[in-house]
Amino acid sequence: MEKKxxxxxxxxxxxxxxxxxxxxxxxxxxxxxxxxGSSFLYGYNLSVVNAPAVYIKKFYNETWERxxxxxxxxxxxxxxxxxxxxxxxxxxxVGAIIVTPIVKFFGRKCTLLxxxxxxxxxxxxxxxxLLAGSFEMLILGRIIMGVDAGISLSALPMYLSEIxxxxxxxxxGQVTAIFICIGVFAGQVLGLPEIFGQESRWxxxxxxxxxxxxxxxxxxxxxxxxxxxxxxxxxxxxKAEKAFQTFLGKDDVSHEVEEVLAESRVxxxxxxxxxxxxxxxxxxxxxxxxxxxxxxxxxxxxxxxxWYYTNSIFSEAGxxxxxxxxxxxSTGAVEIVAAVFSxxxxxxxxxxxxxxxxxxxxxxxxxVLTVSLTLQxxxxxxxxxxxxxxxxxxxxxxxxxxxxxxxxxxxxxQQSQRPAxxxxxxxxxxxxxxxxxxxxxxxxxxxxxxxxxxxxAICLAGATYLFFVLxxxxxxxxxxxxxxxxxxxxxxxxxxxxxxxxxxxKSSAEQESDFTSSVNNGETKKGVV
Length: 529
What we know:
This protein has 529 residues and is mainly α. The protein has helices at 2-22, 25-36, 39-47, 53-68, 74-106, 108-114, 116-127, 129-132, 135-163, 169-190, 202-207, 210-219, 227-233, 237-248, 254-267, 275-280, 285-300, 303-308, 310-316, 324-349, 351-375, 382-398, 404-412, 418-447, 452-469, 478-489, 493-498, 508-520.
């Protein structure tokens, strides 16, 4: 009995040691540096336009009057402002479309590094727009910054999913969401009147974008490329081994290399596929649909409406105008706490309960917020309930829907499918983002306090779909996740393994020839395969 208890204790201890070893210093630095120059900037640019909105609109009006001799009318000014806010998503769509050939040619890490060219260019255009007296520079800068975000929100999750062990893949994937939240909070803090939230200082809010980009450019070159990319797409086993050793913090990585090669042999194909080929593949049909649904709900659930128009929502809730910038900080703080909580529990609770539970809670709080905003003039304490509901909606979003869609996109698809899958996810993401940013002011004007019921309905639809379709992917390999979807895709497991891409797949003889050739060329070391 004592031996059994001792054995059980040893197993738990070994499991704890193994889990601790998964978090190497290089893995942590790579994830933090990659996210700081990528998803952080996405979050920052979501909120940074909030605080200086009044001053930017005044700048638009003064520029218009100087050029044409008369003030811009209210409807045109609203349209210009809506375009300024939502054009960011059009740039994001462009970035999501061009990311596939970029990550194929340059790799995941180099794509993140090169992407900083867009960030620095956008920062210079936006920060110098007031000095140049050109609001077009600000709008153009928002588009270019959107391109940066579109590339980074595909390349970063791809990089993180490929450098992390499967035991902590979900937690590491949540770094993307955590830094989006930190970016939103940073935009709110820097937008305070005491810092850059003044008429003469608002351009500095956009110039600050250069700082994270420079930090990433300085640190990231010293870290390895994705080992899966090096092994499966560049066929460079020695560099892949070194990358695994660096990220895993151990010398013997033969098991990891063999695991990736075994997956490659099962899949019979490491050639990148196009979006059309991916959409035609029966074996991943429901995976693609699930990614489209989760990404669509990620944007259409209404969170961006709250991020973009926080000030006006708090104003409607009866908060004093001078107090709003400080109350807004609470939303950013709640986001960070909820996102970190999600990262800590995702490997224990799994993706499914956090995602479905997050959407479900949002439905409840959107409904309560609608009632609160409708009746707030009749009951003096209802504005405080409105604030609570907004914070609860943000927390509900960040514990699941805020980051898990990116994790799932990396987990659902094999190496050759992943860039096309992220392009599909990115396209849906940014089109939905643009629609919310452009249409929400008009929806809010037409439906008034009932506008959030639209988002509640979307969250309910998303939660219902995921409840019936989404399997748990925690600690599972691509092959195991494919098995979970096999019945729904109406494809046998054998067909799923062997018939991913008709006309693209290499024959067994070709594969054997390629494998032998790589061994003869010294690419595969003895003892590894």
